[in-house]
Amino acid sequence: MLKYLTVPVTAFAQNCSIVWCDETLDAAVIDPGGDLDRIESEARRLGVTLKAIWLTHAHIDHAGGTAELARRLALPVIGPHPGDQFWIDGLPQQSQMFGFPPAGPFTPTRWLADGDTVQIGNSTLNVRHCPGHTPGHVVFHSPEAKRAFVGDVLFAGSIGRTDFPQGNHAQLISSIQQRLWPMGDDTVFIPGHGPESTFGEERRHNPYVR
């Protein structure tokens, strides 16, 4: 079964997630935006072995630590969708603009597309392309664990911003309704910031998408 731990990182309190297979203790880290020593320390505390980096999208608070962590631990970088190439290329500028530690660009080991899967140990997660916040944003869904790691697509009571370059509000709403809701009302989602919620709760009460 898939297990996970949420580790808020950076001054933006971005929800980095360590996800692992409880049979093999192989782990992936989703969106290592920064505070890499803390991420590595939590992985050691959990007794898991980091095997890959998975990215939902390439904004600085989600991807800023990727190049360094990949170099330190020789990890493959999986994702996001190629639509976020320009955000990856701009990471050095993003880090200066927002006062983050210097962030280098990188080339993902594997780009992701809608309908792909990613695997860690014996756990397989489905990939959905959910553009709108960024054009290359993806979401990782574990049907067995009824969990979805949605980055900045959807939040408890809110939705992702669409005022960044190549953001698109109508596209974001469509991504939520067409790609997230079918995962089921009882699916718990881990957003990029703030508390967890369920898709059912947001369908009923989120003023932006109910």
Automatic annotation (TrEMBL):
Gene Ontology MF term list: hydrolase activity; metal ion binding
Protein keywords: Hydrolase, Metal-binding, Zinc
Organism superkingdom: Bacteria
Limits of the Metallo-beta-lactamase domain: 13-193
Record InterPro entries: MBL_Glyoxalase_II, Metallo-B-lactamas, RibonucZ/Hydroxyglut_hydro
Cofactor(s) essential for the protein: Zn(2+)
UniProt protein name: Beta-lactamase domain-containing protein
